Every structure is written in structure tokens, then in C-alpha cells.
Amino acid sequence: GQGLRVSAPVVDELLRLAGETLISNSQIQDRLRQTVKQAEAMQQQQQLVGQLVAELENLVDIRGIAAPQQQARDKDDFDPLEFDNFSELHTVTRRLIEASSDSQQILSQVNEQFTTLGDLLEVQQRLQMANQHAVIRTRLVPVSSVASRLQRSVRQTCRLLDKQAELVITGESTNIDSNVLTDLMDPLMHILRNAIDHGLESTED
């Protein structure tokens, strides 16, 4: 396909951004895990509230049943205000039960959202890693790209030292980071010159 020349600083910047994006994603996932733990604590608290509401409902029902019986026995002492208080207590209890139920439902929906958010973050992380790998591939070059330079260095050294040597490179198609390969060139040529100089006899010998 068509090639596109991209300057090394641009590729380095893309790699930096990809790395920082992955770090940011990990930080968000960590915050999400902490928030899920807090939601679990809220769930336990909600269960306790539900138990207390159930106990209150039971107490109100018992008192609500006892009150009319007591009123029937003591009609002379019937207090309408007390009856109103019982009625109001029943109303508040029912509203509390409904509120507790609504709170439980909302909390369940929040937990579902947390699960969905966690799945989305995992997908995003995989995409970001794929993006990082794609950027890294733009910096890869085959070893064969420096083969001629190494061969030339060997020929020059052989002429200078009057020795004969053949450089055989295997794995020329292996891809390596261009910066790494550039940094390796001087040490590689130094090793080759030393090998010819100290590891080979002269043509006469």
C-alpha cells in the first residue's frame, strides 16, 4: 500500500498520549471499583433500613389492632385525637415503606449502571491498547534496512586489515523499533570490526 512519512517526534507524541490515556483509564477503573464498594456498603445499610421499616410496620399493625378493641371496651373514654394519631402513624409508616422500596429499586439500578460502566471501560481499555500497539508499529523497521550498512562496514574493515570475512545475517525480516536499531548500529559495527581484527587471521596466515 501507499506509505506515509511521519516524523519521529509526532510518533513519540502519539505514543505518549496513548500511554497517558491508558493510565487515565486505569485510574477511572480504580475509582469505579471504590465507588462499587461504597454502593455495596449502601446496599447493606439499605437492608438494615428495610429491616427497621418492617419492624415498625409490625409494631404499628399491632397497635392499630389493639386500639379499636380498647376503644370498644372503654367507649366512655374514647379519644378522637388518639385515633387520629394512630391513623397518621399508619400513613407515615406506609410512606416510609414505599420510600424504602423506591430506594432499594434505585440502588439496584445504580448497581446495574456500575456494571455497564465497568464493561465499557474494559472495552475502552482494549481499544486504547490496540491503538498504542498500532502507533508502536509505525516505528518498527526490518533489520534488513541496516544490512547493507553492516555489510559495507565489514568490507571496509577487511580491506583495511587485509583479511577475508563474510557477514551472514539471519532474521533480516525481524522488525525492531527504529530508535533501538539506530542506537545498536555503532555497537554492532564495533563488534564486527573487533571480530575481524582479533578473531580472524590474516590472508597469509
Secondary-structure map with pairings?
Blueprint: H1 8-73, H2 80-137, E1 140-142, H3 147-161, E2 175-177, H4 178-199
Antiparallel strand pairs: 1-2
Helix pairs in contact: 1-2, 3-4
3D architecture notes:
The model has no long low-confidence stretch (mean pLDDT 87). The longest helix has 66 residues, at 8-73. The radius of gyration is 40 Å and the shape is rod-shaped. The protein has 205 residues and is mostly helical. The chain has a two-stranded antiparallel ribbon. It has helices spanning 8-73, 80-137, 147-161, 178-199; strands at residues 140-142, 175-177. α1 packs antiparallel against α2 (80-137) and α3 (147-161) packs parallel to α4 (178-199). The protein has four helices and two strands.
Number of strands: 2
Main beta sheet: strand number and arrangement?
A: 2 strands, antiparallel
Counted by DSSP, the helix tally is: 4
**Beta-strand content:** under 5%
Instruction: Please write the string of helix (H) and strand (E) elements.
Output: HHEHEH
Oligomer: single chain
How would you write the strand order of the largest sheet?
1-2
SS-derived structural category:
mainly alpha
* Radius of gyration, whole Å: 40 Å
What spatial form do the alpha-carbon principal axes imply? rod-shaped
Helicity range: over 70%
> Could you give the distance between the termini?
52 Å
